[in-house]
Amino acid sequence: MTDKNRVFQFDVDRLNAGRRFDLFLSSVLPDCSRSRAAVLIQDGHTTVGGRLKKPGYRLQSGDRIDGRLPDIVATAYTPEPIPLDILFEDSHLLVINKRPGMVVHPAPGHGSGTLVNALLYHCKDLSGIGGELRPGIVHRLDKETSGSMVVAKSEPVLNFLASQFKKRTVEKTYLALVRGHVKEDAGEILLPIGRHQVHRKKMSVSSRRPRTAETRWKVRERYPNATLLEVALKTGRTHQIRVHCAAIDHPILGDMVYGGRKQKTGPGVKDSAGNTLAMPERQMLHAWRLSFVHPVTGETMAFESPVPEDMAEVMGRLKIGS
């Protein structure tokens, strides 16, 4: 393959006869995942014997594969000078402490002001990810959830980190301030989660097509009408902590989606001045700690994001109220 024009050509030998087209291509192209190879094939950038084939085509001995890697293009999203709280950065990845209220990825209604917009402005050393110059979002946090996130700067790093998440070797620990007095000191929740049968934007433990979900927790501090939990995720389902906490009748304070009607009345404690504590404006959930293996150095890295001011203030007032 020549770097100048990004053209490649391979001849299939007997050892590779019978292999899927996409698997073979990902094995011979540098830093190319199977999904990326499938896109190259589906978009017509590579052929077998001059003909377009599907990613699942079984190669035959003597097949000649020709192709050209498309030029890396700038993403459609606009870089914006939005401040970032960076916990770590090198030429391969960065770890940030996401502030509450920030949307991770542009979407309808959130075309700007997102984490991706901020990263595009900050990162000057991005390489192509899926054919675009863009940051690699490995995992997400809800808009109102704060805390630690890792972001890849290249496709190989993105794939390596994604593999760690898939194998559940990444350690993710959250702090969750929940309603009510949790009696036990520790426990686990093993309730499968899937799409809500009626409200499609919500998740539920009573779904028709659930997936296994495991949440482990232990009590860090108790208040009269609330409990601070340290939560470890063993799976990464959408809204998992919020759904599981609500399912055991201890919804996260401020969670208007899964918290039910009681969330409108506040925790029911008073501060030192005798004022009833107002309901938090967001769910009190924080991605506290994150640990993973660096894709290049092989070093195990661990990061901790400090509790955000609004959550610390609620905890302080709860403590005064007790």
**Spans of 5+ residues with little confidence (pLDDT < 50)?**
none
The description of the largest β-sheet is: 10 strands, mixed
Structural class: alpha+beta
Shape: elongated
Radius of gyration: 24 Å
Order of helices and strands: EHHEEEEEHEEEEHEEEEEEHEEH
Q: Output mean pLDDT.
A: 88
Number of domains: 3
Distance between the ends: 69 Å
Number of H/I helices: 6
Level of helix content?
Answer: 10-25%
The CATH class of the largest domain is Alpha Beta
CATH architecture classification name of the largest domain: 2-Layer Sandwich
- Under CATH, the homologous superfamily of the largest domain reads Pseudouridine synthase
- In percent terms, what proportion of residues is strand? 25-35%
CATH topology of the largest domain: Pseudouridine synthase
Instruction: Give a count of the beta strands, DSSP E runs of length 2 or more.
Output: 18
Brief overview, please?
With 322 residues, the protein is α+β, with helices and mostly antiparallel strands. The protein has helices at 21-28, 34-42, 115-122, 155-166, 240-247, 309-321; strands at residues 7-11, 46-48, 64-68, 73-74, 86-89, 93-98, 128-129, 132-133, 136-137, 146-152, 171-179, 186-189, 194-195, 203-204, 215-222, 226-233, 285-293, 300-304. Helix content is 18%, strand content 26%.
